[in-house]
Amino acid sequence: MGIVCALLPALFWGFMPLIVKKVGGRPTNGILGTVMGALIVGILIQLGTHPQAINWQTFLVSMFAGACWVIGQVGQFAAYNKISVTTTMPISTALQLIGTSLIGVFVFGEWPSMFSKIVGFGDIILLIIGVALTTVGGEKGNNHRNMKQGLAILLLTSIGYWIYSAVPKAIHVPGTAMFFPQMLGAFLAAAVYVLLVDRHTFVEKKTWKNIIAGILWSIAAFLYIIAAKQIGIATAFTITQLCVVISTLGGIVFLHEHKNARELRFTLFGLALVVLGSFITAFL
């Protein structure tokens, strides 16, 4: 069951950047619309599941995790405009895999045996090689400065993803109980960010269209919480990062982000390594 709960977020998170990029607009439109959709799902799950009550410390920690996710997602949205979805997603995936897996192993003691550590870290290297291959050739329409800026943005903001992904393992409460405060924290953080950067975002049509992306993301986030509890964050998170396959191919097919024949071959080979690596990690 835990494997299934990790595979579905891979599907939904793969489609999310395609929707946001297709809708267009600024990073503020993307993040505010997304968290509005997420808050709607959070409220519905809270009312529908009637989770157990949690203390205020756990509530605040869960809100903090949601707010940290906003940091990572704003960085990803900003990178779309610098280096496109097909380039951003593999790089972002590699950074998330490194940080989250290291937290799972060294903080929470996952992959306890020497054999599992050797296989696990070798597998992470395989995944990183895979996502690196998908970026071979770059994009002719973006200059070197844009690539450097995109990389810098992703490096600085990925820590938000790491914290968000680790919290479900650190808090010893059912995932349903922590989900609503996470979505509330994400909404409040995004609202503050938009108020400081561009308050007109609240009334723009592109913001409201991105609610669809938020609904998909939040359903995936709920399933990820369940998966992390059942199979551990290192394994669950690695499986969910199969989303890079969907988002990368979707960027080429649906967003028409161009790759020549050589670049496409490297991309397909790299994605095959990602699939293989995720499959191995799932059974550690």
Automatic annotation (TrEMBL):
Record InterPro entries: EmrE-like, Sugar_transport
Transmembrane spans: 30-47, 59-79, 91-109, 115-138, 150-167, 179-196, 208-227, 233-254, 266-283
Protein name: GRP family sugar transporter
Assigned GO CC terms: plasma membrane
Domain of life assignment: Bacteria
Family listed: Belongs to the GRP transporter (TC 2.A.7.5) family.
Organism: Candidatus Paralactobacillus gallistercoris
Gene Ontology MF terms in the entry: carbohydrate transmembrane transporter activity
Mode of membrane association: Multi-pass membrane protein
Keyword terms: Membrane, Sugar transport, Transmembrane, Transmembrane helix, Transport
Compartments, record wording: Cell membrane
